[in-house]
Amino acid sequence: MQDNKNITLQLGSVINGKWIIVEFIAKGGMGEIYRAHQFDLKRDVAIKIISREWIESLNEDPEELLNGLQRFKNEVLAMAQVTHPNILKIFDYGSFSVNGPEHNASIEYIVMEYVPGGTLRSTMSEDGFYPEEDLVRDWINEYFLPVLKGVEALHKAGIIHRDIKPENVLLDKNIPKIADFGLAHSCYLQPITQSADMKGTPAYMPPEQFMDFRRTDERTDIYALGKILYEAIAGKIQSNIIPFKQARLKEAESRFFKWLDDVIQKATSEEKVERFSSIKEFQEVLQKGLDISKVVQDKQGKDEKTISTQSRPLNLMRWLWPSLIIIVLCIAGGLLWFFINYDKPLFQIHNLSKPAGIEKITTQNRGDIKKLKPSGILSSDIAPKTLQAKDGATLYLIRGGVFIVPDGFGPKAGTKLKMQSFYMDETLVTNHQYVNFLNQVLDQITVEKDVVKSNGDIWLFLGEALEGYRPVVYRNGRFQVNNPVHASCPVIRVSPYGASAYAKFYGKRLISALEWAYTFSKGGTTEKSMNDARMDEPLHFPHPTLNYPPNRFGIRGLGANISEWGIISTGEKISGQSSIIYVILGGLGSPHKSETAICIPVPRKPWEAFEEVGFRTAMDPPM
Question: Could you give the dihedral angle defined by the CA atoms of residues 228, 231, 232 and 234, in that order, rounded to the nearest 10 degrees?
């Protein structure tokens, strides 16, 4: 959890009368990044500043302070020189004053495009895609080649990035955008002293960058890109791997992976003269190889189909008479079944409301639990750790396992279940996200006396949630967050109807109570993190969702001071389908056995909404 006491700007701070700070995002060695709302253009932006703490730490080292400021200016100038879809946009640059403990400090800032998604790292499996050729091919086409195009644009502008890594490539939905130009070098930029230039990320740094920064050129970035390609296939580079070395695949059995291994070795050669001479050459080799492998794959499929077709005439007579006999027997059996069961329905409606991926383990097979992998579901062994949803949310993979269902969690309470893997939102849905949703479905909703409805179903209650806190308003035919400071806080007073509509709109669903309980019990939530998450703050000013500490799975705010909507399948059938009930999960308002015990779900009606209840969504692994 970030310590907000040590950051330079607090939520609600206004910079130069243009931007209001609505969320703290991250803190690095010398900089801090915030999300802010621009008043005049009514848009969210990212603001990067030089940390006041960092400035004060270098008061006695003016040379290093000057070098840091110059790197910051170089980042601005480098970003401003290039306009490309795969490079983060810069909007403004300036400075402002903040009050320090002893004197006022002048803080420089960069205003950039705000990208709410994750990074390139989130598209890569922790263990690599090998041996799945289709996954590797799709990843290269969708993400890696666009990154190469962005780097090519930098090189054409005479800029060497010198710190390319997955964490420095942001994702705007599925569009990668290169960011963090703090170490960029260009003939147009003012040089920095050698000591200050000895920076970078060792895993992606070629030998010449470590030994002598003056020897870096375009091939320095090519080395880093080769390492990224290696990680996509073989898995994340471990800290115990010796840096500055050539990368090569340990396993490359097929022609496809042997070719990629050659590409990786050439890109990451320790001698830069042996690497690709340019990004363009790198792209052309990759594209040509992908095209050839696709043709070979298609040809193999056609050949197999042709062989199968040619063999049919030879086997036709052998199988003709037995097949006719079987067909006649099937027809006779079907007619007999019809006359016996003519008064019964031909089709049964299966349980459509059963939470996905849950199977009961009986006492007979409890000691021999087998891995359950339903057909069509991506194995959790190769499923990506995170997914990027259409609403901009990051979903984390919750790997399945066995657990005892707690008391109160539906008809399966007390039994041992095997949970299949699923994805869950990192945070509760925010005011900003829900407002965006409402504005996209304006033709489906009505607003009457601060009640938002759709087809007569209540979705959301507007107005003052608690004294002084009015999160969402409806003005001039559109919804908006009343105070931008609350944009990243959890949306509350949403009914299960409204939460379900949001989830369905973005191709997701509400979490089941069992999924919530499993994630809570297996996520490593401790009494300390529970207390930290609650922070004893009044509910009328909820904290931004990213301020809550993540559990072992990466999920934030589970069991904190905001409860959540979930569902429980009752097993009772109404009109042929299993009915479900909506329940409130977690939060300070639900009964606890102790400070760390799991909360008992509280059943509620689907049109109800409460000041202390929000929601998050889930997804099944991709088919």
Answer: 150
598 DSSP 8-state letter:
P
Containing 351, the helix (H) or strand (E) segment is none
How big is the CA angle at 91 (ends 145 and 160), to the nearest 5 degrees?
45
Same fold, 120-296 and 376-425+491-619: no
Residue 137 · residue 293 · CB < 8 Å: yes
302, burial (CB in 10 Å: exposed 0-12, middle 13-18, buried 19+): exposed
Between 218-234 and 279-310, two packed helices, what is the crossing angle to 10 degrees?
A: 30
Alpha-carbon distance of 188 to 194, in angstroms, equals 18
Average pLDDT over residues 525-541: 40
Give the mean model confidence (pLDDT) for residues 78-106: 80
Angle at 555 between CA 31 and CA 86, to 5 degrees: 50
Instruction: Report the DSSP pairing between strands 509-510 and 478-481.
Output: unpaired
pLDDT digits (tens, 9 = 90+) for 401-448: 888 887 767 677 778 888 889 999 999 999 989 999 999 999 999 998
Taking only Cα atoms into account, the Rg of the chain, rounded to an integer number of angstroms, comes to 29
Residues 6+ apart with CB under 8 A from 573: 351, 579
Are the beta carbons of 611 and 493 closer than 8 angstroms? yes
Other residues' Cβ atoms within 10 Å of the Cβ of residue 360? 11
Q: At 516, which amino acid appears?
A: W
Domain over 376-425+491-619 is classified CATH 3.30.1360.70: no
- In total, the chain counts a number of residues equal to 623
Q: Which two tokens stand for residue 53?
A: 């703490």
Where does residue 271 rank: exposed (0-12), middle (13-18), buried (19+ CB within 10 A)? exposed
The CB-side HSE value for 473 (13 A sphere, CA atoms) comes to 10
Q: Is 4 helix (H, G, I), strand (E, B) or coil?
A: helix
Angle between helices 312-340 and 279-310 (to 10 degrees): 80
Structure tokens of 311? 């063999």
Q: What CA–CA distance (Å, rounded) separates 254 from 185?
A: 39
For 120-296, CATH number out of 1.10.1740.10, 2.30.30.60, 1.10.510.10, 2.40.170.20 equals 1.10.510.10
Contacts of 66 by beta carbon, 8 Å cutoff, 6+ apart: none
pLDDT in tens, 41-52: 888 999 988 877
Inter-residue contact 225 to 199 (CB < 8 Å): no
Calpha distance 211→498 (Å, rounded): 58
Task: With beta carbons less than 8 A apart as the criterion, state whether 33 and 46 touch.
Answer: yes
Please report which confidence band the pLDDT of residue 377 belongs to, taking 50, 70 and 90 as the band edges. very low
Axis crossing angle, helix 145-156 with helix 279-310, rounded to the nearest 10: 160
How many Cβ atoms from other residues are within 10 Å of residue 451's Cβ? 14
- One-letter amino acid at 595 equals E
Q: Which two tokens stand for residue 150?
A: 């962005």
Q: For 571, phi and psi rounded to 5 degrees? A: 85, -15
Q: Residue 257: helix, strand or coil by DSSP?
A: helix
Task: Give me the residue spans of the domains in the chain.
Answer: 120-296, 376-425+491-619
What would the two tokens of residue 56 be? 């004060």
Residues whose CB is less than 8 angstroms from the CB of residue 105 and which lie 6 or more positions away in sequence, other chains included = 52, 55, 56, 97, 98
In sequence order, the 6+-apart residues with CB closer than 8 A to the CB of 543 are 489, 535, 537
